[in-house]
Every structure is written in C-alpha cells, then in structure tokens.
Amino acid sequence: MTAQTTTFANRLLRWFESHGRKDLPWQENISPYRVWLSEIMLQQTQVSTVIPYFQRFTTSYADIEALAAAPLDDVLHLWTGLGYYARARNLHKTAQIIAQQYRGQFPATVAALCELPGIGRSTAGAIVSIAFGKRAAILDGNVKRVLARHRAIDGWPGQTAAHNALWQTAEQFTPKTRHGQYTQAIMDLGATLCTKSKPQCEACPVQVDCLARQQQNQQLYPGKKPRKSLPVRQSVWLVLEDDRGQLLLENRPPVGLWGGLWAFPEVDTIDDIGARCKQLGFKTAQIEALDSRRHTFSHFHLDYIPVVVKGKPQHRINDASPLRWLNAANLEGYGTPAPVKKLLEELYRQSI
Q: Which residues are catalytic?
C-alpha cells in the first residue's frame, strides 16, 4: 500500500474520531442483521427518511428469525412509503434463506453474501467490515462521489471503465486495520462534507490531495448519467366503492412493478371500465373520474386517472382470491405503494 493511500485512510479516521456520526440507530448494538437492514434501506434513500423505518422494523422484527417468520404482507406494509419495493421482497427472501439454510447466522464473506437476494458487492462489504471487522471495500453513492472527486475519475459510475476504476480505488484506499470505522468514516464524509452540491472542501480531511479541488471542478465528479427522456405509461385506476364505503384492492403478482403490494385494479382506458367491473362482479351505480396524476419511477412516468365507481358487489370474495374489500381507515397488514396510500388517505379525508 502506498504512502498516499495510507495517509488518506489515516486522515479520514482521525476526522471520524472527532466529527463522524456515531449516534445513528444502526450504529448501536451493531450486528450483521442491523447493518444489513440499514444498508438495504439506505440504498437511494436519505438517512433522515430511513431512521423511523429502521426503528419500526427493529421493533417489529428484532432479529433475522422474526423477520423470516413474518408474512410478506406485513413486511411490505412496514415498508410502505420507502419505495423500491423489490428491496423489501428481497429482504424477506434473504431473511428466510439465512434462517433456514444458515441457522440464523449471516455468512461472513463478501462472496457468500453476494449470493443472497438483494445483496451486492458494496452492501456485502459494509456487512463484512462493520459487523465482522474484516477488510472489505464498499462503494455506495456517497463513496463513489468522494473517490471520483479525490482521484478525478472521469465518467458516469454506471459505465464499465468508471465503475472499475472506482472499485480499484476503493480497494486501494481501504486500510488493513480499523475496517468498520473506515467504512463508516468514508460514508460519513460523502454524506456530510463531500455532498453533491456545495461540498465543504475547507473542512475535508483529505482535501489537500483531492484532484477535483485542485482543479476547482468538483461538480464534474462523478460524471452524470447520460440524459434521456423518460417514457410515459398510462393507466386508469378503478376505485370501486361498495354500499358500506369499503374499497376494493388487489394483491399484485409477486414479481414486477409493485410486486406483492395491494393496489387498485387497473384498466388501460376509460372505455374498459364496464367490462372490468363486470369481470369483478361489481354492479355499477355511479362513476366519477378524478383528476389525472403522475408518479415518476427511475425509468418511466406513470400517468394515471383514478375513477371512483360506486355500486354493489354481486358475489362474495373467497379467501384464495387476490381481491379484498377494505376500509381505507384501517389497512394494517396491507402494504401499498406510495401513490395508492396517498389516494386512500385523500378518499378517507373526503368521507369523514
């Protein structure tokens, strides 16, 4: 290891001792389970948003066995609002694998962890270094920004050349000792000082040899993802309401968009409403289309029109059906996507 990489780690660790965050919930009672849970939640999500979710999860599921034993619907319900729901489904799958195949004990190597659903190289590195105290590099979004600026690594991190260069630098800079502290320190540096906009370079412990600072072009790193216009998908949401004020929700297939969550039945166009209601065994009495709304995903926009259809169910729903008549005020145990939850809350406020 070169003198430069050694001094990078040493300076960072000294800074962390005085200025690093040490009171985040997942930094208490450190365990592989708590580190893993926090790392999954923190993917593309801010710390302030994650904290209450982490606290609710660890209150409900104190360990891997409790999470593994929980119904997926309950897990998705706790996850509602955090987004990227595949994370929650993978979380549940991994909990079951570890509980059943590993007797509740997390594997302690990056390679073994990467075999589990939803765990990539960086998340595995964080678990190995923080929870097991072993040497392993990480490369989450904050670390990419720190390293890209410090070494002036060109290109968008999603491109192969930049991706490989960043991982090579991450491996190079990771010290031989104090692995967990270094991992937390470099994540903290990116989260608190080396921020996306207005980085606080004067307070940075490694600014003296930061190439981006020397060139005064910090905003160029990391490189931006090539821009392309997002496609737009359109949908009509059927908000079926019975004579008791209950609403019909449908459990979506386990894979795909909002997999395993509860949402309103959908049709492609307004003209399809009659046929879909007939299919659902619902006799229509009144129809009212609400204003169109937009929900944006990472790869497309969803424009949807909620259509409130009041009427009467013509038959009972059996337990095996993916459909349920539910009260908008009481959805405990039913995970819903954020726009569905928002619409349910809006409809409930209008009903009282």
A: 39
What per-residue confidence (pLDDT) applies to 111? Answer: 97
Domain ranges of the chain: 3-220, 232-351
Q: Which of 250, 335, 338, 347 is nearest to 76 (CA)?
A: 335
- pLDDT tens-digit readout, 57-91: 999 999 999 999 999 999 999 998 898 899 999 99
| Cα separation, 178 vs 122, whole angstroms | 17
Tokens for 285? Answer: 């009495």
Residue 331 has what DSSP assignment? -
Task: Please give the structure tokens belonging to residue 318.
Answer: 């059996």
DSSP single-letter state for residue 257: T
Class of domain 232-351: alpha beta
Q: How far apart are CA 325 and CA 247, in angstroms?
A: 5
Cβ-based neighbours of 139, under 8 Å, separated by 6 or more: 121, 122, 125, 147, 166, 167, 170
Closest CA to 129 of 39, 44, 53: 39
CB 254 within 8 A of CB 182: no
Cα–Cα distance between 147 and 141 in angstroms, integer? 10
Between strands 266-267 and 232-241, the pairing is antiparallel
User: In the CATH scheme, what architecture does the domain 3-220 have?
Assistant: Orthogonal Bundle (1.10)
User: What is the number of alpha carbons within 13 Å of residue 272 lying toward its C-beta?
Assistant: 12
| pLDDT tens track for 157-205 | 999 999 999 999 999 999 999 999 999 999 999 999 999 999 999 999 9
